[in-house]
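Could you help me review a protein record that somebody else here produced? Do not assume that whoever made the record got everything right. The record follows directly below this note.
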Amino acid sequence: MGNGMWKQEARDSIEEPTERNEKLEDQRPQESSSSIPRHAWVNRREEKFDYDKYYIKQRADIAKYGGPHPNIILFGRVGLHCYNLQNGTNLQFLTVHNFDSWITSIYSHFITLEAMDPVGNSSCEIETHVRHAIENKDCLSAITTLCRLKTTTREKKDKYFDMDKNLVDDFFKGGMPEWMPEDALTGRDKLQYYEMKDSKLEEEKGWLHLYAGLALFSKLHAHALESTKPFEMKKIVVRTKENVESKNKVKAENAIFYISFKTRCGQDCNCIIRKTTDGRPGHLSLEVKCFL
């Protein structure tokens, strides 16, 4: 997928979200069944704005009115997925506490969420910054530029640099691939492909369902997406470079996933997910192409 949709002014890639008040989205999700008060999305232009009071009030409103818009939850999960991949953890999403959303040439979300560690049954808060855009009706890109444990003090000069596509492995650059060839698992390039076993599908179902949901999000409204769950995973083939052992392909930093699944209402779906990174902490790109 091209880089055109990610072109922005230089300041767009380095400004901390809370300092970009003029770009903050001043709209509530009107279609939501939860009518959270306006001040939960207020455009904060006052020079002496009390951010701590704002976030405390927003957190209380989100809890009181049943949570944020479903797309905030979706991209919060994307950020948590990035954190788990890069830190070797298996934190489970619980809820969103705070978020800032704004629109330039793309959508950006700075999200604070709570996650649980199933091993110690303890919880923590994660901060993540995720950008997404749909270049056309078939393809969506979601790029995480920050995922970390919540800091105790606000980092006013935090910098969220764009993902550097020049640092991505050349094997995974260019336009999104077409569906895999019929002889992918037996042909001359068979060492690049690995079909996930049923046991592995169950073990990794959390993020696999996230990938399927992200693919459908490129076709459906976020609220409509909820009615398609849960998904039934049918077949998943992973493609990497030949020098990656089969057992490591699923967790490779750069990989292409060919996913066939069925929605709760019986709709068969296929999607391609290309996962890449530029090697920088907190950076992850998920490019999505969905076929219904």
About this structure: Confidence is low (pLDDT under 50) at residues 1-43. The longest strand covers residues 122-134. The beta strands are 92-103, 107-117, 122-134, 139-149, 193-195, 232-239, 255-262, 268-276, 284-291. The CA atoms of residues 238 and 257 lie 5 Å apart.
